[in-house]
Amino acid sequence: MPNLFQPTALVGAIAIAMGFSTSVSAQDNTNVVNASLDTLVVTATRSEEKIKDVPARISIIEPQIVEQSPIAELPHLLMSDASIDMMQYGGYGQAASIFTRGTNSTHTLVLRDGVRLNTGSAGSASLAFIDTTDIKQIEVLKGPASVLYGTDAIGGVVQLVSKTPEKTGAFVTGEIGEHSTYKSVIGADLAENGIYAQIRGQRLESDGTQVTDFKDAQVNAGAYDQKGFSAKFGIEKEQYAASVDYSENQGTSTYVDGINDANWNLIGLKNVSQDFKNEIINVKGRVNLSDNFALHARLSQFKDDLEQNDSHDAIYNTTKEAELYSKWQFSPTQNLLAGVATKNVESDVLSGSGYNAVDYDKEVDSTGYFVQHQYQSEKLHTQLGVRVEDHETFGTHTVGQAAARYQILPATSIYTNIGTAFRAPTNNDLYALSWGGNPELKPEESVSYEIGLDQQLTNHLTMGLSAYRNEVDNLITWQNGKNFNVKEATFTGGEFNLDWAKDELFTNLSYAYVQPKDKETDQDLPRRSRQSLTLTSGLQNEVYGISASLSAKSRPKNSTISGYATVDVNAFWNVNPNVKLFTNIQNIGDVEYKTTSYGSGYYYVNGGRQASAGVTFRY
């Protein structure tokens, strides 16, 4: 059975390092080490807010990181946060799953400008097939967020925030690397008097790296070929705004499939390929009915299609969303956000034949009603919200969240939050019977508690601490060929961040620990690393920069795979305002490690080293 068609409840966590991303938490300081805390984020509150005021842990992968290497795919960009485990079946174009704070891959909601990218069949996003060419920054909100986003946001939210043109110009970028890998990007922007337009086109090809540790020379790496484009047009005025955003990405991914005898014993492997296509249409609008009352609306559609080239197997997912909400600033320190969101999710899946066939076409509707109150003063920031979700299959669910951050001293802030969330079983969970589907599954429900401290130790050094516990009832788990509900699972952990910066030098250390437990058996859930560490150090200014980044994971308990440590190196040189040279080496030591078991004594392995160099010309 092709690996992308296997049950998505297969869980695990093996990550690869990525260059320097900045992990930050809210704290009210003004020196250079905290300059990035003035960065505006939108994921936590559905409106722009300084990251230092958010009463939760949130990290960002900043614009210069996203632009550092066009070749770097989304799974690799997300591997820089110690609280995230990333399991990928090899390198480019191979299936990838994100595990935030030890929770399942379906517990992290992935968005692009508010558009839901988690599919109705698998429940997770096709991370390896999502292009980042026009992305400004990536926001990672940790902890439950079902009040604002509905189902799926049990472990956290990853939001891709696209670029909005700020000036007129054009550019072309080319990057070439090992394994016959190259990417080219061309784009143009127009911005004048509040009207903007943007267009991007890109192409990536790679012979890929080894996917499994199977030594047959005929089973080559997973080759990858993709191309796409995006276009955006909008108007931004004080009293109103509107935009239309379209993006499309398609290509071919080669992966490894098994050859079985009549008794289903694995006797060999072969390369097979599949064609993919994803498409996003996003229409947004805002009108200010008064100085303190704004009305927002969004209509969107996301399509995620996958077709096998060696069989008739195919998956077609379509998610349609409509949303209307208002924000009322009824006092200088208080605002109220209220709205309604409805979505229609359709999955059409065909795989295999006979006993192992999966064939269903299902459509599900749900509507959520939400309200959130915010209080924002110089020292205190609070967030209180509730959502009622009416799901066509599983009825009504009510979730809530309360959070607060308080600046107790000029150099010290503390925060706490508590929230509930839920996730409805996916169509694969319920209806893909030969993959372990179980129509009797119940929705997952969670409650999460978190406290944190942020402290400026010196003018150049800051520290962040947090502790959390996430309790999930009816956790959906795949074991022995079938999905079932675990009575209760707990995810207990903590995070530590230490950030230092002086002049052009910087060092960022992030450590995360989590215990992912099946409460009934008191055993660790499979394939999760308890300990993770990232360490980045470098030099950067407006002309040049160089950095090295270490990423390490401990060996998961109850697992035959081991821990690992890899190092990335990144450098750039702005020769002049029109020319930029850059180079990137992912996994400079070419460390090979097993990511998860393929079966019959074989394992998937990581993507190996990828060294590249490129140039950007701007006009």
From TrEMBL:
It is a multi-pass membrane protein. Keywords: Cell outer membrane, Ion transport, Membrane, Receptor, Signal, TonB box, Transmembrane, Transmembrane beta strand, Transport. Gene3D superfamilies: TonB-dependent receptor, beta-barrel domain, TonB-dependent receptor, plug domain. It is found in: Cell outer membrane. SUPFAM superfamilies: Porins. Residues 1-26 form the signal peptide. This is TonB-dependent receptor. The lineage of its organism: Bacteria, Pseudomonadati, Pseudomonadota, Gammaproteobacteria, Moraxellales.
